[in-house]
Design brief:
heterodimer, A: mainly alpha, B: mainly alpha, 2 strands, disordered C terminus
């Protein structure tokens, strides 16, 4: 076993273990820290694959920026201690489903590993003879602006949609109520008419009428397609 | 703008090999004109909303619809032209422009126009108006159009994500109703999970084949699975090496692994891809989100999800599974993926229909009915894959004409799927438009008893909804009947007992479907009106859309054959890569067949005209046909000028004529989006 392989197996193991820890920890901050470990381990694996640029980006963007964002969100949300303590005892069906799906997932992973091993056997060491500048920023830039030009440009529209979504979902609700009442009036006209203090619309959150209004998680009367 | 694009498209075709990357990209954008217009308009609307604020909102619908009219016109100019017969790969094989994609683009554009015609009214009336709505609808439509054009798994993923993210927002935008947030949350969590599965599947398929390009994957898959079958003797030798020379055993092991290794990675990837795509079209094990998301979403968004997402989803399913994964050992029964999909199709239509029967909420009823329709469409997908699977089994030495037949019927099945998806989209858009119209001012009339006696209060809308429901049900004069007929015909061509079982159960399911559709119709017409009157949406948008959809369902039904020809043209040579001669040859063959049929019809009409002296036969039709037959070269150059002007050979222009001869009567699908957009534009 060469040194490179040794490093790979070490960091692959770290990545798997820390990923498991990420999803199994109760405390969100601890989970986030484990996620950082995963990101670093995966970045090392990228390095071993001679994808240097990707490794750098992985650390900069994911381990750096995204994690800070996660921690901020966790702080802002102020996760309730009580909520984490109490959890219902799983029913038998839930437990069977849980272990069954674990078994299925394990089988699936074994299948994929077997395929990978077989492919490795077929042509060991193949696909490693890349172009000399493989994985560098130069090579990636060239690919992005030639072969993957469309994907690169279309992703900008996708991200734009995500940003709009964040704005639409998070906008201040009281402002929006006023806003939708004064439909058709420009801001200037609204100020001129002095209609900023319109009476609140009755039936604020829950619309009267047959639309089933349910709380999150609780099954609604018509919902959750019990008929199937 | 149109002039510019019209200039751009011929320029793209004229320049054989543009030198710089920029010139190529520009030419490719010319080919993708409808998509580019949609993208530019979405940005335009966003900027306008940002700078003009609330004052812009009255104009937003008009601006959006004018952009869609432009995009529709560009797509109409592309559809059916000889230039796109073989398909044009653009953006270094990431996408392709062919009749298939352009026809589905027209469908998506029509659906977007229909939804935008009343989405603003709905939002205003229910007090959740927001300026980004039009822009989000256009971005989602852009994602669907990527799916229609995709020839690469990267594009497939990108299209699905663009479409989904915009729709998550549209679903959750109704901030004053909790059901909307719940629906968005549910759809988002499940959708993100299924996207992850899809991405994992793409990674595994890439690992097995070393490429993400669908045509190259198809080649690899055909090779691997032929080898897989051929390596059986080697496997035997590798398992029982007694007495064989060591070198031979070593060779046998190599050979058997060579056959199996890619498959071992590929099949999990295929299953994950299937899961991801079936989630998007809400087939049965992955349908749980559908009723809640459809019910909680604002109704125009529900219409968009039920009509538009299905178009994009089935475009991707056809491209990936029927186009690339339809090799015999991989696709066909008993061990291929089609048997999985067949079982799912059966479950989808049965569960969808049985659950719909129990619903008392009209929105949920239509949601379950849309699940049931996915089951019918999957029957067509299974049929298409089975035919192509047979056609590509070169190893079994089938007769050449049998392979030819398999491909022809495969093309027919794809055409049936396209036709069904598009006609279903029209009918379901009309139905949901009617549901959006019924209710205003934060109250919605979605429970069944509120719909009783609708015909007495609003006879026009009741009639429109009835026609749309009859089309969904599959009643003969409407187009839904011809869609079902085409799917069942395609399925029955197959000498496979599984397909017969599927068709019989689909027929039984149609009867169940008739029960709940007719129950609604009966309650609208023969029950006394409910005591509380439900307010209706102000503005003409929804009414115009219901009327146009009903008219479209009827007209395309009456002109079923001419409408179906558009789908046939789109599906001709489907399994061949875009830009190849063989694709063009299949389209040519279809056109020659139409021309022969037109000539035969003409001869028959002349014989008829001679026999009864008073000339009972329709005088117009033969005359028109004759004019075409006499001057095939220049006769049609006026209608579709951009294509014909550049027609390389006389033969092609010639072959195009019969298709166009039908155009004045029933260019049935095509002008719909356009007409709709223009009509609505006039409305406010």
């Amino acid at each position: 076993m060469s040194g490179e392989e040794l490093i790979f197996y070490l960091f692959a193991a770290i990545a798997v273990v820390s990923a498991l820890a990420t999803v199994s920890r109760r405390n969100p901050v601890v989970a986030a820290v484990w996620l950082v470990v995963t990101f670093f381990a995966v970045a090392v694996c990228y390095l071993l694959l001679s994808a240097t640029f990707l490794a750098a980006i992985q650390i900069l963007v994911y381990a750096g920026a995204m994690m800070v964002l996660f921690v901020f969100v966790i702080m802002v949300l102020d996760v309730d201690e009580r909520g984490r303590e109490e959890h219902r005892r799983p029913t038998r069906i839930a437990r069977v489903g849980y272990y069954g799906s674990l078994l299925l997932a394990g089988g699936f992973i074994a299948w994929v590993l077997l395929g990978t091993l077989a492919r490795q056997y077929l042509n060991p060491g193949a696909d490693l003879s890349k172009t000399p500048d493989f994985g560098t920023a130069n090579a990636i830039g060239r690919e992005i602006f030639t072969d993957y030009l469309f994907a690169f440009e279309a992703i900008s529209l996708l991200l734009l949609a995500a940003v709009i979504g964040a704005v639409v979902v998070a906008r201040n609700r009281r402002d929006r109520e006023k806003d939708s009442l004064q439909t058709g009036m420009s801001h200037a006209a609204r100020h001129a008419a002095g209609v900023a203090e319109l009476p609140p619309v009755p039936g604020d959150i829950a619309p009267p009428g047959p639309t089933p209004v349910t709380d999150f998680g609780a099954p609604s009367a018509t919902g959750h397609d019990g008929g199937t | 703008m149109t002039a510019l694009l019209a200039l751009l498209a011929p320029a793209a075709a004229a320049a054989p090999a543009p030198s710089s990357v920029g010139a190529t990209a520009l030419a490719d954008m010319g080919h993708l004109a409808p998509m580019m217009i949609v993208a530019v308009w979405s940005l335009l609307l966003l900027a306008a909303d940002a700078f003009a604020g609330g004052g812009m909102r009255q104009f937003q619908r008009r601006v959006a619809l004018s952009g869609l009219a432009l995009a529709g016109a560009a797509a109409l100019m592309q559809f059916g032209t000889v230039e796109y017969d073989a398909g044009v790969p653009v953006f270094s094989g990431m996408l392709a422009v062919d009749h298939f994609s352009v026809l589905l683009d027209l469908g998506v554009i029509a659906v977007m126009a229909g939804v935008l015609a009343f989405a603003g009214d709905y939002a205003r009336s229910h007090r959740f108006e927001y300026g980004e709505q039009e822009s989000l609808v256009l971005i989602a439509g852009f994602g669907m159009m990527i799916l229609n054009h995709s020839t690469d798994l990267v594009a497939v993923f990108l299209g699905i994500e663009t479409m989904s993210i915009a729709i998550y927002v549209l679903v959750g935008a109704r901030w004053n109703a909790r059901a909307s947030a719940e629906a968005a949350f549910k759809y988002f969590i499940m959708g993100a999970f299924s996207s992850g599965l899809l991405l994992m599947g793409i990674a595994l398929v890439y690992g097995a084949t070393g490429t993400t390009h669908l045509d190259q994957i198809a080649g690899q898959v055909a090779q691997v699975f032929t080898q897989w079958g051929a390596s059986q003797p080697y496997v035997d030798l590798a398992l029982h090496p007694e007495g064989a020379p060591a070198e031979a055993v070593r060779h046998a092991i190599d050979k058997s692994v060579m056959g199996m290794a890619p498959a071992a990675l590929f099949i999990p990837g295929l299953l994950l891809l299937l899961t991801g795509l079936l989630f998007k079209v809400s087939a049965v094990p992955f349908h749980m989100w559908t009723p809640d998301a459809y019910d909680g979403a604002p109704t125009p968004t529900t219409a968009f999800m039920a009509a538009g997402v299905k178009i994009g989803g089935f475009a991707a399913l056809l491209k990936v599974f029927v186009g690339s994964f339809a090799t015999q050992r991989l696709a066909t029964a008993p061990y291929g993926w089609t048997s999985v999909v067949a079982v799912l199709a059966l479950a989808t239509m049965t569960i969808g229909n049985l659950a719909a029967v129990q619903q008392s909420n009209v929105k949920r009823l239509l949601a379950y009915s849309s699940i049931a329709h996915v089951g019918y469409i999957l029957v067509g997908v299974v049929a298409a894959a089975n035919f192509y699977g047979h056609a590509f089994s070169i190893g079994t030495m089938r007769a050449a004409d049998q392979i030819e037949w398999s491909r022809e019927t495969g093309d027919f099945s794809v055409a049936a799927v396209l036709f069904y998806v598009l006609t279903y989209a029209i009918a379901t858009l009309g139905a949901f438009a009617c549901v959006s119209w019924y209710g205003a001012n934060k109250t919605e009339g979605t429970t069944a008893h509120e719909w009783s006696g609708l015909a007495q209060r609003h006879p026009g809308m009741a009639l429109g909804l009835t026609i749309c429901l009859l089309s969904l049900m599959g009643m003969p004069p409407t187009v839904g009947f011809f869609g079902k007929l085409a799917i069942f015909r395609a399925a029955l061509e197959n000498d496979n007992p599984m397909m017969r079982v599927l068709v019989v159960s689909a027929l039984l399911n149609s009867v169940v479907g008739a029960y709940y559709y007719l129950r609604l119709v009966v309650s609208m017409y023969f029950r006394p009106p409910s005591t509380t009157e439900v307010p209706t949406l102000p503005g003409r948008g929804a009414r115009v859309v219901v009327g146009l959809c009903a008219a479209a369902a009827l007209l395309t039904g009456i002109l079923g054959d001419t409408a179906f020809r558009r789908a046939e043209l789109a599906a001709a040579g489907f399994p061949y890569a875009a830009g190849t001669e063989r694709r063009a040859a299949w389209v040519d063959k279809l056109r020659t067949r139409w021309e022969d049929e037109a000539l035969a019809d003409e001869a028959a009409a002349e014989a008829d005209a001679k026999a009864p002296a008073n000339g009972k036969a329709d005088a117009k039709a033969p005359a028109e046909g004759k004019a075409d037959a006499k001057a095939p070269g220049e006769g049609k150059a006026d209608a579709k000028a951009p294509g014909d002007a550049k027609a390389p050979g006389e033969a092609k222009a010639d072959a195009k004529a019969p298709g166009d001869a039908k155009a004045p009567g029933g260019d049935a699908k095509a002008p719909k989006g356009d007409g709709k957009a223009e009509d609505v534009k006039r409305a406010p």
